[in-house]
Amino acid sequence: VENMNCKSFSEITLWKERFNLIIQKFCQEPPSSDSELAAIILLGQEAWISCVSQSWFSDLNIPILASRISQNFFLIPDSIRDTATWLPELVDAETFFAQQTGVSGIAYDYDVRSNINLILRQHPETQRIAFLSDNTYGGVCLQAQIRREIESYPDVDLILLDGRINDIYTIQNQIAALPDNTVLLLGSWRIDQNENYYMTSALYGMMLSNRSLPTYTMTTLGFGFWAIGGFMPDYRSQGKELAYQIEHLLSVNEHNCPENGFITYIPNYFRFDMVKLREFNCDITTLPQHAILENNDVSWMDRYPYLLPFILLSLFFLVIGFSIVSYYLLKSRRLNEALIRTEHQKELIINNCGVTLLYLDRNRKIQWESMAVLKGFLPLPQKGKSYHCYELILNRTEPCANCPVNLMEEDMQPREHLYKCKDRYFSIQYNPVCHDDNTYAGTVLRIEDVTKKELAKVELENAKEAAEEADRLKSIFLANMSHEIRTPLNAIVGFSEIIAETDDFAEKAEYMHIIRNNNQLLLQLINDILDLSKIEAGTFDFRNEAVNVNQMIEELYNIFLPKVLSKGIELKKDCPFPDLLIDADRTRLSQVLSNFMTNAIKFTIKGSIKIGYEKIDNGLRFYVEDTGCGISNQKIDSIFDRFVKLNSFAQGTGLGLSICKMIASRFGGEIGVQSEKDTGSLFWLDLPCTPNELNSSIKTQEETIQDSIIIPRTVEA
User: Fold this and answer.
1) DSSP three-state, residue 211
2) Strand partners for 260
3) N or C: which end of the chain has fewer CB within 10 A?
4) Where would I find the beta strands (DSSP E) of 234-351?
5) Edge-to-edge strands of the sheet including 355-360?
6) Which residues of 320-339 are buried (b: 16+ CB within 10 A; e: fewer)?
7) Contact by Cβ (8 Å): 573, 553
8) Are strands 72-73 and 103-108 parallel, antiparallel or unpaired?
C-alpha cells in the first residue's frame, strides 16, 4: 500500500513523477507480467490520472483496477502554465476503458444535466446557476463538466465559485452578493486557494451568508442541512466489488486471455430534504418518481414499527429488574441499619463498661480499638492511620525492651501490667488470641482505670501506718502518763510525810512549795487528759466574752514572771495598743498562750522570752518568742501532732500543742511556728477579725466596750 500524498490541484504537475517513483520500487517501467507486480489497484482520481497519464501506460500488460473515479476525467499534460486558470478538456471514461486491455474500474457518474433540469423544473424563474468547486482534482473535473453541459442551456448563465482562486471568506462574500433568480449548485469544498483544509462545518458559514438562496447538490455536499436535494451517486463501500473484479482479472491474466477493459458505474438517485422543500415552497408533486424523501414527518410508529414492542418489552424487564433491585436494596438497607444499630449498641456498651479494648496483630499494630477510658489521657488515633501499641499508649518510637506481648507469645499465658499516666493508674491486661490450631494470632489488651483502687490502697496503707503510729504514740503516752503522774504523786506523798516529821519552819515552807508545784503539775496533766477526752468526744466547748487583751497579757506576764526570773532569763511583753477589747473565749485563748509560755520557759536556758500581740491584715496575731534551743527542720512539721515530744526527758504529755491547734481551728484562725535550731522559736496564733474594727485610742471603759470590740468569725461548737 503506497500513498501519493496528493494535496491540492496546485501540485498536479508533480503527481506523475511521484507515481513513477512508487512503481520503480517494484519494477522497471513499464511494469510487465515478469515483474513482482501482479496487479495495480488505484484508489481515487489522483492515483488514476497519474497512472493513465504515463507515457508507458499503453504498453502495460498487467491488470489495473481503479476505484472512486469519475466518468469524466482529464489527463495530466507535461506542463501547465497556471493551474488556477487552466480549463482542461474532459475524457470519457467509458470510451477510454473500451480501448484498453486488462483495465477495469468502478466510477461515479456525476449527471450534471439531470441536476440542471431538476433546478429549472423546481425554479422556472432561474436565470443563473452558481457552481461551487474547490482546489482539488475532483472539483476541477466537476467544474469542467458543468462548463460543458451549461452550453446546452443558452438562457441560463453560469457563475463559477472556484476554490482555486478564492478562499472561504471571498466565497462567502460572493454567495452573499448573488443576484435574485440564482440557484446554487454544490460540487465540492475541501481545499481553497491557500491550501487550507475544511470540514463540513465550514459550509454553515456559507449557508448563513445567504439563507434565502435555493441550493442543490450533486455530490451530497451540504445535504441534510443546506441543500434542498439533487441527483447524486449512491456512495457506498466498494471493497467487495474490488475484490471480485481483481480476482477475475488475475484469473484471466493467469490463462493469458487478454480481456478488454470495462467500467462499472455507481447508480445515482434523486434525494430531497423535506424540511428544505417546505422552506422554499417547492411543489412536491413535481418531484421525479422514486425520489427519496428524507426528514419526512412520518409517525415514529410507521418509521420504527418494531420500536413499540421493544419499548414495552424493555419496560417490562426494567420494571422486573427495578423490583428485584429495589427488593435487595431495601433488604440491604434494613440489614445495614440493623448492623449499624448493633454496632452502635456494641460501641455504647463497650464505651460504658469502664475499660478500653485493643486488638493487636502479630506485628503489634492496632487493628481494632475502643478508647473510651483513655480519652483525655492519650491522643485519639486518626482514622485510616495504623498505629503500633507502643506508639499510641506509651508514645514511643520503638517496642519496649521487656514487652509483655513478647513474653506472652512464648508461653501463651496472660500478663498484667500497671501503667501510670498523668497522675492516673491504668491496669493493662494482655490476653493471647489463638487460631484453631493454637498458633498465636494476636493480642487483646484490656485497659482499665484503677486510679481509685490504687489511691484506696495508698490511703489504706497510710491509714494503717497512721493507726500503727497512733498505737505507738498511745503506748508511749501511757508510759509517759504513768511516769508523769507517778512523779508528782510520789513527791506529794513523800514530802507530805516529811513535813509531818520536821519542826523546822524553813524546811516546812520549802516542802510546801515542792508539794504545791507538784500539785499544779498533776493538775495540768489531768486537765490535758480531760481536754483530750473532750476532743475525742467532740464536746470541747467555747464561751465567747469581752476580753481585755492588754489585761490578759498582763496577767499572763505576772503569772510566769517568777518562773522566768528564777531561771535567770528576761521576760518581755508587747502590747502595741493602749487598750483593746475582743470577743473571744478568754480561757481557751489564755490556755494557748500559757502553753506557749510553758514550752518557752521549759526549753529556754538563757536570753529572753517575749509575749505579746500585733495587728495583721485580717485581725490579731498573738505570739510567744524565745531564745531557747529551737526546733530541728525534721521535727517542725510534726510539732502540733498528738503525743509528740521534742525531748523525751522533759516533763509533759505531748498534747499541749495539739490541743492549741484544735483551739485555733475553732477560733477560725491559724497556728504556727518559726524556729531555728539553737537560736530560738516563735509560736503564734492568728485570730481573725475585721481590721477596721480595731481602735487603739484611749477611751473610757464604756466607750471601749462599744467601739473597740473585734468580732471574730462565727465558730460553731
Assistant:
1) coil
2) 101
3) N
4) 262-266, 268-273, 292-294
5) 366-370, 355-360, 440-449, 424-434, 415-421
6) eeeeeeeeeeeeeeeeeeee
7) yes
8) unpaired
Separation of alpha carbons 93 and 584, rounded Å: 144
Per-residue pLDDT tens over the stretch 231-270:
999 988 888 888 888 888 777 665 454 556 678 889 999 9
- Residue 24 to residue 715: CA distance in whole angstroms: 131
Grid coordinates given for 310 = 421493544
Are residues 215 and 182 in contact, defined by beta-carbon separation less than 8 angstroms?
A: no
Report residue 284 as a C-alpha cell: 412536491
Is residue 350 within 8 A of residue 372, CB to CB? The reply is yes
164-178 pLDDT, tens digit per residue, is 999 999 999 999 999
Q: What's CA 580's distance to the chain center, in Å?
A: 74
Nearest to 668 by CA among 714, 711, 621, 607: 714
Strand 680-688 and strand 619-626: the pairing is antiparallel
How far apart CA 580 and CA 547 sit, in angstroms, is 8
Query: What pTM was computed for the model?
Result: 0.45
Residue 451: phi and psi, rounded to 5, are -60, -45
Residues whose CB is less than 8 angstroms from the CB of residue 309 and which lie 6 or more positions away in sequence, other chains included: none
N- to C-terminal Cα separation, the chain: 123
Beta-carbon neighbour count of residue 485 at 10 Å?
A: 16
Q: 147, 223, 163, 218: which is closest to 195 by C-alpha?
A: 163
User: Can you tell me which residue has the cell 465559485?
Assistant: 161
Instruction: Return the pLDDT at 261.
Output: 65
Q: What is the pLDDT of residue 713?
A: 35
Q: What is the CA radius of gyration of the chain?
A: 65
3-state secondary structure of 444: strand
Return the SS3 of 575. coil
Cell of 535: 476532743
Closest CA to 583 of 668, 683, 671, 658: 668
List the 709-710 sheet strands across, edge first.
545-548, 581-584, 709-710
For helices 505-537 and 656-667, angle between their N-to-C axes, nearest 10 degrees: 50
Question: How high is the pLDDT of residue 33?
Answer: 60
Total Cβ atoms within 10 A of residue 221: 21
Is residue 370 within 8 Å of 347, Cβ to Cβ? yes
Alpha helices in 24-157 (DSSP H): 45-52, 93-98, 112-122, 137-149
Residue type, 405: V
- Residues 673 and 623: their CA atoms lie apart, in Å, by 9
- The predicted-structure confidence for 456-495, as pLDDT tens digits, reads as follows 888 898 889 888 887 877 777 677 667 667 777 887 888 8
Give the containing element (helix H, strand E) for 7: none
Residue 328 vs residue 384, higher pLDDT: 328
Lookup: cell for 199: 470540514
- What dihedral do alpha carbons 108, 109, 112, 113 form, nearest 10°? -170
Backbone angles phi, psi at 101, to 5 degrees: -115, 130
- Please give the Cα distance from 317 to 415 (Å, whole number): 63
The pLDDT mean for the chain works out to: 82
**Distance between CA 409 and CA 441 in Å, rounded?**
9
The kind and range of the H/E element at 421 are strand 415-421
3-state secondary structure 580-608: CEEEECHHHHHHHHHHHHHHHHHHCCCCE
CB 107 within 8 A of CB 96: no
Residue whose C-alpha is closest to residue 360's, from 448, 432, 444: 444
Instruction: Answer yes or no: are the C-beta atoms of 72 and 90 closer than 8 Å.
Output: yes
Q: Are 64 and 39 in contact (CB under 8 A)?
A: yes
How far is the C-alpha of 313 from the C-alpha of 165, rounded, in Å? 59
Phi, psi of 434 (to 5 degrees): -115, 155
Amino acid identity at 135: N
> CA-based angle 614:616:618, to the nearest 5?
135
Rounded Cα distance between 142 and 153, Å, is 17
Cell of 593: 498562750
